[in-house]
Amino acid sequence: MAERGCPLEAVPLPSEVRESLAELELELSEAAIFSVVRTQFKFRSGWGSDCLTNMPRTVLTAHQPSGGDITQKGYEKKRGKLLARYVPLTQGVDPSLQAETRIPGPSQATAPAPKPQKPRPSHTRDERFRSDVHTEAVQAALAKYKERKMPMPSKRRSVLTHTAVEACTPPGVPVSSRVSSKIQQLLNTLKKPKRPPLKEFFVDDLEEVLEVQQPDPNQPKPEGGQMAVLKGELLAVGSTWPPSLLATLRQWGTTQPKAPCLTALDTTGKAVYTLTYGKLWSRSLKLAYTLLNKLTSKNEPLLKPGDRVALVFPNSDPVMFTVAFYGCLLAELVPVPIEVPLTRKDAGSQQVGFLLGSCGVALALTTDACQKGLPKAQTGEVAAFKGWPPLTWLVIDGKHLAKPPKDWHPSAQDAGAGTAYIEYKTSKEGSTVGVAVSHASLLAQCQALTQACGYSEAETLTNVLDFKRDAGLWHGVLTSVMNRMHVVSIPYALMKANPLSWIQKVCAYKARAALVKSRDMHWSLLAQRGQRDVSLSSLRLLVVADGANPWSISSCDAFLNVFQARGLRPEVICPCASSPEALTVAIRRPPDLGGPPPRRAVLSMSCLSHGVIRLDAEEKLSVLTVQDVGQVMPGANVCVVKVEGTPYLCKTDEVGEICVNSSATATAYYGLLGITKNIFETVPVTAGGAPISDRPFTRTGLLGFIGPDNLVFVVGKLDGLMVVGVRRHNADDIVATALAVEPMKFVYRGRIAVFSVTVLHDDRIVLVAEQRPDAAEEDSFQWMSRVLQAIDSIHQVGVYCLALVPANTLPKAPLGGIHVSETKQRFLEGMLHPCNVLMCPHTCVTNLPKPRQKQPEVGPASMIVGNLVAGKRLAQASGRELSHLEDSDQARKLLFLPDVLRWRASTTPEHLLFLLLSAKGTVTSTTTCIQLHRKAERVAAALMEKARLTTGAHVALVYPPGVDLIAAFYGCLYCGCVPVSVRPPHPQNLATTLPTVKMIVEVSKSACVLTTQAITRLLKSKEALATVDVRTWPTILDTDDVPKKRVASIFRPPSPDMLAYLDFSVSTTGILAGVKMSHAAASALCRSIKLQCELYPSRQIAICLDPYCGLGFALWCLCSVYSGHQSVLVPPSELETNVSLWLWAVSQYKARVTFCSYSVMEMCARGLGAQTAVLRMKGVNLSCVRTCMVVAEERPRIALTQSFSKLFRDLGLPARAVSTTFGCRVNVAICLQGTAGPDPTTVYVDMRALRHDRVRLVERGSPHSLPLTESGKILPGVKVVIAHSETRGPLGDSHLGEVWVSSPHSATGYYTVYGEEGLHADHFSARLSFGDTQTVWARTGFLGFLRRTELTDASGERHDALYVVGSLDETLELRGMRYHPVDIETSVIRAHRSIAECAVFTWTNLLVVVVELDGLEQDALDLVALVTNVVLEEHHLVVGVVVIVDPGVIPINSRGEKQRMHLRDGFLADQLDPIYVAYNM
């Protein structure tokens, strides 16, 4: 470092110029800050214990004053004039640049090795503030981005106070839709790639390998020689040092009993009590005696030497704390000071519980007043805190202590290796550990501090810090007693009320030393105007405890600038660096104690991120100015080692972790041997691997380097280190950049947390800040966008998430400040409740796997060899043959369903076919064969006479679920008309349901509508008029009271291929289409189901399905008539009023076979899961069920079917009863489990392979495994083959492809009004491109695979299982891979307990995730980051838009399937009324 040159120091300024500058700074600062200070005092949030540690390099450079009499411009002008003559030209810097930024730059490293500049006289300091550099840097960085606007998130009006919807609409985009215009903008921002693409290596298409960021060959590398160990001055060992701290206490207590030891102040600044050395000695003795002799448990002493005792004292009571601390030392007990828990669930108190438990603490000492304030249990005892061990509480006020006998003396006097006290430390992850300090270390620390700070007897020290730990304890409780000093302790509450109090006390007590943090200096600056009588001339030492923070330099500079005129000498300011493990690491000495002149370095932030030190005068935008923290402590050796891996010594120009070897460091993490060894017993080695010393070093957790004059420089802490890609960034630096973007208006300075979360194997930066209550929504959003741009420009790193939370909601550390680890925990658990979120995964996630390139397919000739494809069996399978199983004569006679019904009406007229149940479980109607036949005849007569329909006319049946629908269906067949079943409109929701009815009636070219009286009225009502033109309905026939007429003759189709009925349905992709079912197909379908389910006239089955399309329609209207079994009909709508109706019916009628939909199953699982005992008492017994089949057109939902089976196992439901069916438009029943045959099998496939259209079977529980269950058995007469969806070639066993089906009951084609059959002709008449090219197949549009199992079916053959993976139309093509929405949705639903449902779709190249929030609206924004994280982690996809909506917004059809395309249309038309829409940049 030294040979690279040191920054030039500035020319000293005359005192009158300094005065004028100070006045000018204050004038500007007050303009901007006065209003803030008022707020800060009102809100506790403004007072963070580290609110200054996160400051830009100067505090008082305001950006846009909100009031006052000077503007930024005027200030710049005046300041420029004042300084013009004194700013020296820096070597190698263009004068025009120099004038513009006005910072003394470092010497350039252009010459091979310029000599270090001669240090300037020690009595001057560089007065210039440094944060104007950072602010200018930020403003310049932002100027580059002015053109790019980001889309602002949308909030529901109820969630906002201010909204600005069209705030960011780009030119040329119609503002008709908020959402779609924003998506357009988002696309515009994504069009320009952010960074050059990384080097990508080849990805095997089964393994999605994450990118490993390749190091940049041009990145800076350290060039210096290996550093040497730095040795501190010798510790002056002599007879003057006392043998131990307790011996000193005894000496002062007996020889100087009246000397003041500690003065405590109240919140008004009045001295309430002064503890003398005599009192401290006598009260500590009393406490030691009481602890050792008066506390018993079962006649045994409660405590023995070496036991740990918790000290629970408020920050306002230093006197009692000091007595307790020394009392414990005298009793040979180990004090463990902790914070006072304010509530049972205090932030971090659980971790403190872990600390107390691991230290074996059973006793807590406290004061009367403090104990009264602790939360109490019912008994009046102190409440048990979450995670704490059971504690005995002892109040140590004088009246509770026993006086020791005259001859009693404590035995503790030694200064050995035993533990003296334990200080708590919270790690980056939030865990709390106890750092054990031995008696010997404690003594050595006091001696080293005495020597380094030149403390002498009877000096006065004012202490603003927490006296329970860290420098506040070392200086203000321990070293002060060793030197018989008088400590004036300033409580935190007083500093909040009067930030100037510590300066007033220095003045009042003529204190020689003061102990502060940079934030205390900052706040006193804001409050000092008008305090002319303040003088700091008595101070010889101002210890800045957080001097190791890179941003403390601004406070030191600003403070000196203002107070030099009030007697403060520049050399008095002494920044120091410390850590819980190494105690004090380094401290700057005043010149009279032999300290060299102070130094500072202007470092390139870019080089720092690579761990290299380069002085930088060129790149003004991204530099970090740091000051030294002085010399190494007396008696210590210091070196700098590499942060990761083996502790090799760093080179002289390399940043590493500072390590200390000294007798004054802590000794261990109490009770944690493993991590103790890594931290406290590090052996640094040279590049050759040789240890540099036989004594171990302690790692300090501080990152830095050794500069000129052997001064220590600290550039950050390991706890705040975030490694993104190959570069390291410091949390404090990022905070400072954020604060340089006009923070005053939007957020609180000291209330910002920056941390990293691991997503996709890399650290991602998250920034959380408290938003001011008066900040407008749009302004805050603009501020957030600018912060992102500033950080990106200055640190060259993307921020993953920026969140603003309401004021005063972030968890606080004990002395203000933010509890960062707790904040991180809340973020990860979705408990942060932000009011504004901006996610930017596109810019910062650069290690996604390479997008897949589609491989050219292998040609047919090389693949097909007999029945093998590429060495595998052809993926084809079939159900049982039909011809062997059916009495062919009977089948020929009864080819048509009308014939079957007439035959049954004549042979078994009174046989019951249908029972319809109401919500109460009562039978509302029953129908026998003869009744159904007669009703059908009456309907047929009405159609021919009233409607005058001819053969082949289409008739819409608009009925509620019931027997009327079945009768109307057969009535149509009896007169040769073609029925079309249509779901009736919903009376409460005509606006959305009636247009669908009208559309089906029109598209199907229905000449007549058959319906009930009630629905007829509804179709012609005023409400209907508002939605559709009621005059355009075809003839509407009400069948409630058709005359009792018979038809002359029942129509018999001339050919089996004649159209029997049209089956209209809306697919999950939102397409309405009708398929044509011939008479032959209808009969074949019934025959297959009859054989598979063993249906005979003596059987009863229960059906809980809608009767409007697909298999539901077939089971309601066709199967009972064909097979003669009795159907118990349970309309699913009745379950809304009585959720147990279906299960009760199954039990009551002892149904062997039952059918339901997923929505019915879900309703039962949710509504009855906890009521199985009640149902059992009501006599519900499901042991009769052989098979319960879920009718679906999708991948089987394993989680739901398994949980249903488990829930109702108690009601006797057999474990293997539940199964699924599979059908689709082209063939409504391809697979049905039926009553015989092997049980359905489940396999686990690799989800990553599925994205590449491959099936790779894996073990259960292996990473990325996805369970798939067989979709039931293939029906008799059905053949299935798996074909490639593009080349149409057959595929092999266990290959993913499109499921093709050949069966007598496939539909014959689409019926569309536009006659677009040609478009979909291949759906019904496809042929394989090679192999068996003769068979005609129907394409299902579903992806799946066949796999031969080890099981055997009824014929003794090995069983072939069909696994359906998902609809081809619904798959998402992203990054060259195929994703199934259900897989992403499953991950998202698992992300947070308040996500009730989820649906995903794509819009252009963006993935949109819609989640239903089952919780409070203010929790909505928590979900944005969790959803983004889980989709990145599990699917390697970046979510473009997250939409949070109310429960029930995602449309679901009658089968329980999500209508994702309807949802997409609703989103783009802005009809969802979302709670929040987040656009991930």
Write structural notes for this entry:
With 1481 residues, the protein is of the alpha/beta class. 30% of the residues lie in helices and 22% in strands. The protein has 41 helices and 64 strands. The strands form 17 sheets. The chain has a 9-stranded mixed β-sheet with strand order 4-3-14-13-15-16-17-18-21, sandwiched between helices. A 7-stranded mixed β-sheet has the order 40-39-48-47-49-50-51, with helices on both faces. It has a 5-stranded mixed β-sheet with strand order 1-64-63-62-61, with helices on both faces. β11 and β12 form a beta hairpin. The radius of gyration is 41 Å and the shape is elongated. The N terminus is likely disordered.
- Biggest sheet: strands, sense, closure? 9 strands, mixed
Provide the spatial order of strands within the biggest beta sheet: 4-3-14-13-15-16-17-18-21
Low-pLDDT regions: 1-11, 29-69, 88-131, 160-178, 191-206, 858-869
Assembly level = single chain
Shape: elongated
Mean pLDDT: 83
- Return Rg in Å: 41 Å
What's the N-to-C terminus distance? Answer: 41 Å
Strand portion: 15-25%
Percentage of helical residues? 25-40%
* Number of helical elements: 41
Please state the structural category. alpha/beta
Beta strands, count: 64
Secondary structure layout:
Blueprint: H1 15-42, H2 72-83, H3 95-101, H4 131-145, E1 154-155, H5 178-191, E2 230-231, H6 245-255, E3 260-265, E4 271-276, H7 277-293, E5 296-297, E6 300-301, E7 308-312, H8 318-330, E8 334-338, H9 349-358, E9 363-366, H10 368-373, E10 392-395, E11 419-426, E12 432-438, H11 439-453, E13 460-463, H12 470-482, E14 486-489, H13 492-497, H14 501-509, E15 513-516, H15 518-527, E16 541-544, H16 552-563, E17 573-579, E18 583-587, E19 600-604, H17 605-609, E20 623-627, E21 631-632, E22 637-641, E23 656-661, E24 668-669, H18 673-680, E25 698-706, E26 712-717, E27 721-724, E28 727-730, H19 731-739, E29 747-759, E30 762-771, H20 777-795, E31 799-806, E32 812-813, E33 816-818, H21 820-829, E34 836-839, H22 841-844, H23 860-863, E35 864-865, E36 868-869, E37 872-873, E38 876-878, H24 888-893, H25 897-907, E39 912-917, E40 923-928, H26 929-945, E41 954-958, H27 963-974, E42 978-982, H28 990-1003, E43 1006-1011, H29 1013-1019, H30 1022-1027, E44 1035-1038, E45 1059-1066, E46 1072-1078, H31 1079-1093, E47 1100-1104, H32 1110-1123, E48 1126-1129, ...
Parallel strand pairs: 3-14, 7-8, 7-9, 9-10, 13-14, 13-15, 15-16, 16-17, 30-31, 39-48, 41-42, 41-43, 43-44, 47-48, 47-49, 49-50, 50-51, 62-63
Antiparallel strand pairs: 1-64, 2-22, 3-4, 5-6, 11-12, 12-24, 17-18, 18-21, 19-20, 22-23, 23-25, 25-26, 27-28, 29-30, 31-34, 32-33, 35-36, 36-37, 38-54, 39-40, 45-46, 46-56, 52-53, 54-55, 55-57, 57-58, 59-60, 61-62, 63-64
